[in-house]
Specification:
Blueprint lengths: L20 H7 L6 H29 L3 H45 L4 H32 L17
Helix pairs in contact: 1-2, 1-3, 1-4, 2-3, 3-4
């Protein structure tokens, strides 16, 4: 048994939560300016990009074969970026957006609560939904990529770990 693995900055530390910035932004959409929601997407996209670059650098260091280094780095960057873009930004952002939109609509039709109360309730519902959507979305993106993009990779050795 070797030394313990070094923690992955983008997967094993608080930095991982930057990937959820857009879900928080979507949860607050009803009560903050839209520019702040878009800024939250900027934070999440910066996280995704930084993780992809990090995985590319790690693949470059790990690859002993100079001739195979470029393809392995490209696969690591592409796989990480696509996986993170789908699992951390696009799908959860859309999901929280729709949950919040539906809850605001339903609260408007089913209650007589004042609009500010409905908006804050919608925000609370969106924030509360985040922990419940993460794992199912991650597993779905794993399945989606395993069934499509990852089929194009030449061998199991070049496939990076997604989660």
């Amino acid at each position: 048994m070797g030394p313990p693995a070094e923690p992955d900055l983008y997967r094993d530390t608080w930095v991982r939560y930057l990937g959820y910035a857009n879900e928080v932004g979507e949860s607050f959409r009803a009560i903050v300016p839209v520019s702040l929601v878009w800024a939250s997407y900027g934070v999440a996209t910066a996280y995704v990009t930084a993780d992809a670059v990090d995985k590319g650098k790690k693949a470059a260091v790990a690859c002993e074969d100079e001739a195979g280094k470029t393809p392995q780095v490209a696969v690591a960057v592409l796989d990480t970026f696509v996986w993170q873009a789908l699992a951390s930004v696009a799908i959860p952002g859309f999901t929280i957006n729709r949950i919040c939109a539906a809850s605001l609509y339903l609260l408007g039709t089913m209650t007589r609560w004042p609009l500010p109360i409905r908006k804050w309730t919608t925000t609370a519902i969106g924030l509360s939904a985040i922990p419940f959507i993460i794992k199912p979305i991650d597993r779905t993106v794993d399945f989606l990529l395993d069934s499509s993009l990852r089929q194009l990779y030449s061998s199991d050795e070049t496939r990076p770990s997604s989660s």
